[in-house]
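[retry 2/3] histidine kinase: previous attempt timed out, resubmitting with same input.
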Amino acid sequence: MKKRSITLIIWLMSVALIGVMAMQYYFIRESFKQKSQLFDEAVSAALASVAGKIEKQEIFEFAREQDRINQEKFKADQAMRERNEQLLASQLQIQERIKKLQRQQFDYQQRYREEEENLKALVPNAIYVNNAFFETYIRRKRYQTYIDFNVVNKYLGEGYIDTDIQLSAKREVPLVPAKDDSTRFIIPYFRNNRVEAMQTATLIPRINREIADQLQELENELLVLNAKKLQQATTLFDTLAIIGGKSEHILKDIESSILLAKKPFRERLNIKYLKKELDTELNKRDIYVPFNIEVRDDQSYIIYETLQSNNPNAKKQFAKYSTKLFENDLNSSPGLLSIYFPNKSSVIRDTMSYMLLPMIALLALLIGAFAYTLSIIFKQKKISEMKTDFMNNMTHEFKTPVATIMIASESLRDPEIAADGKRVNRLANIIYDENVRLGNHIERVLNIARLEKENLKIEKVDVHINAVVSGVLDSMNLQLQRANGVLHTDISAPNDLVIGDELHLSNVFFNLVDNAIKYSKDAPEITVKTYTTKHHVIVTIADKGMGMTKDQKEKIFDQFYRIPTGNVHNVKGFGLGLSYVNDIVKRLNGEIQVKSEKDKGTIFELTFPLKGITPDREA
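[retry 2/3] histidine kinase: success.
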């Protein structure tokens, strides 16, 4: 594969990997934003619910206290009421009935408020619309085009903006009377800052008309009795109710509101109840994270907080959520409840862990596949280059004996040389030697091919290592003498019987000794030893040649690899010898180790199990 093609593949795979990483980042970021928005909505709903519960709890406690006071007042004035027992009995009966109806009306109004709060929590942009407007412009579809939605943004301070949607009619038409007293809301759906659709939500009436009518009747009866007991008024509000002719429950509501508003804010707020309800409402919405509380009064003074920090800007770094307390007071809301979540981001990230782990695993898999593919590409490129070198070496190695044979054959055709018997005999020996050399080259290549195909036949017979090594050294003695080499031998292993193939073992030792001769810079100096351990026979072949670097030593058993010799090309071969040696040794259950230093020499150590010792037993 060309370098340009490899570069193109790397570039394309890098672009694909970066694209996958970019898409994963975009998906995680958008998921985080969505989770954060849902978290904000859940906390805001919880705060609104807690504020409503606190106000209801205050009203309940106040009503219970007023009942106690009224009961005490009734006991104190019992003597006076006895003088007009029949009138008082009638009045009390009516008051009890009024009180009962008022409780029913209060419960009914609380039910309406809960429905309205639930609607506002689900749909914050719901707009109240009176029934006449609904019957005129909404129920009649032809007039729906006259409806106008106006969005008004109000700045609340501290970076908060309240959005209010106002509903009006672009064109006035005669109003259609309301058909019932239900409470209705319009829910607009915006798209590109325009209303594309709207939906109607219908709630129960704000007040129960039947109860209100009954209250009106009872209050009319009280008007008659109050005319008779003006002089019995004991409080300012009793006198106002009698003189002004107003409904008593209206003045009681005003009285209650004034009395509650006059109480100090600290006395109106039960912190223990507040914390309990906050935990309950947040847990209902599956929010189980630590938070800090801050409560301010109408003067913005902090009256309670759980966040302690020496840094005044620490709060600004946290997610803040606020709601008004006692919002239904006659005056402005006297309090503000705020909560802070120091670990909001980490909590949202934890909820996304089920997505992050598979994505990280997939990314790691892609990067691993990318790296593995590149390693395969470079390895194949390296093998291709090595095979090209092998073909060049093989051509050269085959060309030399063929050329020698051709020259000798042409010489034999000369009548003068053919007449000389000695010269003919020498040329015939040259042709024979070169044929043997060519056959050895072919046999070496074929052996490697058989090894790769796993069909190389290896005999398992008794072999004496000392005899095989000695035979190889004797056959290579002439080659060593031509190189002016020195051979040191110590073939003295006392027990040298192994199970193996004598031919292939001879080839193994021949290759190692031949390499020791070829890779010696000067006259070769080779040392061959055999010795035994408890379960093995060991053969060492050492030289003082050019040696190898650490990187070269790790590659010498690879096919087609040859140690570079610079500009000197006197070392011939295919790069197959050591690969063949390594494979044969392993097939005979042996081991081969190499020790080498650059320019100092190399030692090959071959270890074979003695006959009767199996690898399992040795292990």
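[retry 2/3] histidine kinase: The chain is about 55% helix and 20% strand.
[retry 2/3] clearing retry counter.
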